[in-house]
Amino acid sequence: MNRKILVNLAASALMTVVPSLAFAHTGIGHASGFAHGFAHPLGGLDHVLAMVMVGLLAAQLGGRALWLVPASFVAVMALGGGLGLAGFGLPFVELGIALSIVVLGAAVAFGLTAPVAAAMGLVGFFAIFHGHAHGAEMPETVGGLAYGSGFIAATALLHAAGLAGGLVLGRAAEAKGATLVKCLGGAASLAGVGILTGVL
Q1: Which of 95, 136, 150, 159 has the fewest CB atoms below 10 angstroms from its CB?
Q2: pLDDT value for 13
Q3: What is the largest CA-CA distance in the chain?
Q4: How many domains is the chain built from?
Q5: What mean pLDDT value characterizes the chain?
Q6: Are 167 and 59 in contact (CB under 8 A)?
Q7: What is the CA radius of gyration of the chain?
Q8: Is 196:95 a contact under the CB 8 Å cutoff?
C-alpha cells in the first residue's frame, strides 16, 4: 500500500511541476502570474522548511493524516492568500511563519502522536500566516488567480516531497529511518529558531 501511495505522490508532484515548466517560458500574463506564485514558496527557506515539515508530520502520523494534514494546510493557506491579496492586515505574519518552523519541526523531532483533527488544526493555524505572506507579496503586474494557483501548486509539491521522504525514510532500516526523520525535524526546528532570532 505504501508503494501505491508513493507512486501517487510522485505522479502528483510531476503534475504540479509540468504546468509550471510550461508556463515559465510562454511570457503570457497568466503564465507569468503562475510562475511568480510558484516561485514564491520555493524562494524562501522559511516556507520550504515549514511545508516539508507538514509532509513529514503527515507521514509520521500515517493513515488519513497522509492527505488530510497537507490538504488542511493548503486550504487554509489559500484563505490566508485571499486575505493578503485583498489587502486585509494580519498581525505577526513573519513571527507566525518563523514559529511554524520551530513548532512543526519540534513535532516531527519528538514524533508527535496526535489525533488527525488536532494535527490539521495545528498546521491550519500556521498556514494562515504563510498564505497571507504569499498573497500580500503578489506583484501588481500579475493576476491573482494565476498567482494563487502557482503558490498552491508549489506548496503541494513541497508537501509531497516531505511525505515521500518521510515514507521512504520511515521504511528504510526501520528504527534508523525514523530516527533520521526526527533528526530532520530537529534541524528544521533549530533553523526556525535561527530565522526567529535573525541569525538566518
Answers
A1: 95
A2: 43
A3: 50
A4: 1
A5: 84
A6: yes
A7: 16
A8: yes
